Amino acid sequence: MDRPSPDLLAAAGAWPFEQARALVKRLEKSGKGSVLFETGYGPSGLPHIGTFGEVARTTMVRRAFETLTDGKIPTRLLVFSDDMDGMRKIPDNVPDRAALEPYLQMPLTAVPNPFPGPEKTFGRHNNAMLRRFLDTFGFEYEFASATDYYAAGKFDAVLLRAAERYDDIMKVMLPTLGAERQATYSPFLPISPASGRVLYVPMKEVDAKAGTITFADEDGRDITLPVTGGRVKLQWKPDFGMRWAALDVDFEMFGKDHQSNAPIYDRICEILGGKAPQHYVYELFLDENGQKISKSKGNGLTIDEWLTYASPESLALYMYQRPREAKKLYFDVIPRAVDEYLSFLDAYQRQDWKNRLGNPVWHIHGGEPPAPETVAAQGENAPRAQVGFSMLLNLAAVANSDDPQVLWGFLRRYAPGLSPGTHPRLAKLVDYAARYFQDFVKPQKQYRSADDVETEALRKLDAALATLEDRASPATAEEIQEKIYDVGRAIPRYQDLKAKGATPERPGVSLDWFNAIYQILLGEPRGPRFGSFVALYGIANTRALIAKALSGALKREHEAALAAKLPKSA
Q: Helices 404-414 and 530-537: crossing angle, nearest 10°?
């Protein structure tokens, strides 16, 4: 099997390879014979795309590491849920918030499940949702529940060590707290025998020899509990370090909101006898208003919402790109993510190994990206190309239909014999585009009238397209595109003398020409490569569309459709 050379792997600049090389050096120093990757999840609310992204990105580093080491060093990915945390506030997006009020501060796996489904507790329900999302993408991982690990005694040895080294932990934590919090702080959080709540109370005694803590319970009685067996958990900052030490974690990435606490996690891990793992800090996702997405608020996109309109691979691409830059995560980013994924997939086949290792699809598919699904128009020498999401949205727009069969009609006219059976990924893309058009594009379309210059330009475009009709072989997308350029470069408004290779005799064409086409004919501020669109939609159909736009019928019909949907009081 063809594979990149060791020299190319050593020089690969993609961020997963940078992290993987650092892990190789870590193992060379430690002599450890395996690698444990970990991701954390707080199930205080429904899992969001940021949680998915953490697993996807960690998997990308894992696959890069396995490639660097030729698969000779075993790796594991542990997805750890902090489901023993107390429910400190009721999420905004649960069906009946009042019903959960009696369970505030209870461990999330003791809070009743407010959603329909087989899981009996809120924490278990959210864990199940996360696992379903991860399984949808085919991640290879092991799932771990804090409740189960604490109860099974998997942390007992390190918890006893925490009791022994209680003062050392306090020396790390107290300087990070205000004076009032210092007076009551303890790294140990007992589970109240009286109420079942997670208690934030000071310790009256920590008996390292006995492995117990003593505190005042909610009913005022002094209670002594062993720190083992799930009767006590650690505060979240010490818990990070404890878990790293107990499980011998080698790599964990986390959001920028944890960055200032990372030295605390590391120090506590070391106090408890462990070696702090390698970190990778990523920027946070924002909603369309620039606010951090939150599980409890339910703002931003959910994984289910993204997967309603686009493939898991497009979501993975969004996670791969620029992880150390804050990015907005809302519905408008989906079409571009899909089309960029298709472009990277198409380019991969033509690239050498140096460029393949930097191509996102190598990392999305663990080094084995699929071949693209290309479509060829009629004609012996017709070039093959992928049909993009934006192209399908614009076909839906001019047809004013969210029926996938209407889109298949255009596709089959362009390439007879095309079907969901021959192109299953395209079939999914058609369904995604139809749903996205109905929910997001159709309500926002705004056609505008052409001014005098634009009217004349579109008439010339109509005449140019007429010369391509009734030929023995259909015009290619490239031939159509060149006609569009020729019309634009002959009109002073659209000439671009600064374009690469432009001369006064043959000027370039500005984007204003294409923007006018999109706005007047498609009701969109931007669109696909228009020559490719015309090839799919048909020259005769495009000429009819131009005539309809110039007559004002397109704009009138759209405005009438919008008015029909307005409430009578509007």
A: 100
Whole-number mean pLDDT of the chain? 91
Three-state SS at 420: coil
Q: Is 31 exposed, middle or buried (0-12, 13-18, 19+ CB in 10 A)?
A: exposed
Which residue, 462, 455, 448, is CA-closest to 520?
Answer: 448
Distance CA 452, CA 446 (A): 19
In one-letter notation, the amino acid at residue 498 is K
Residue 522: name the closest of 439, 456, 444 by CA.
444
Reply yes or no on whether the pLDDT at 112 is more than 60. yes
Asked if pLDDT for residue 568 goes beyond 50, the answer is no
Using the predicted structure, report yes or no on whether residue 448 has a pLDDT greater than 80: yes
pLDDT at residue 300, rounded to an integer: 63
Distances, alpha carbon 381 to alpha carbons 294, 347, 483, in Å = 52, 20, 19
- Checking 404-412 for CB contacts under 8 A at 24+ apart, the result is 404/430, 404/431, 404/434, 407/433, 407/434, 410/536, 410/537, 410/538, 411/375, 411/387, 411/536
Question: Which two tokens mark 540?
Answer: 């005769």
pLDDT in tens, 422-444: 999 999 999 999 999 999 888 88
In the structure, what pLDDT confidence band is assigned to residue 378 with cuts at 50, 70 and 90?
low
Angle made by CA atoms 558, 560, 564, in degrees to the nearest 5: 120
Whether residue 566 has pLDDT greater than 80: no
Of 321, 322, 317, give the one whose Cα is nearest residue 361: 317
Summarize the confidence of residues 118-124 as an average pLDDT: 95
Tell whether the model's pLDDT for residue 268 goes beyond 50: yes
Question: What local confidence, expressed as pLDDT, does residue 301 receive?
Answer: 74
What six digits make up the tokens of 133? 């999302």
Taking the C-alpha atoms of residue 393 and residue 372, their distance in angstroms, rounded to an integer, is 20
Cα separation, 273 vs 244, in Å, equals 10
The torsion angles phi and psi of 199, rounded to 5 degrees, stand at -100, 130
Q: What is the set of domains in the chain, with CATH numbers?
A: 6-180+234-286 (3.40.50.620), 303-372 (no CATH), 376-565 (no CATH)
pLDDT(159) > 70: yes
- 56: Cα separation from own chain's centroid: 8
Using CA atoms, how far residue 382 sits from 149, 391, 476, 564, in Å, is: 60, 18, 7, 44
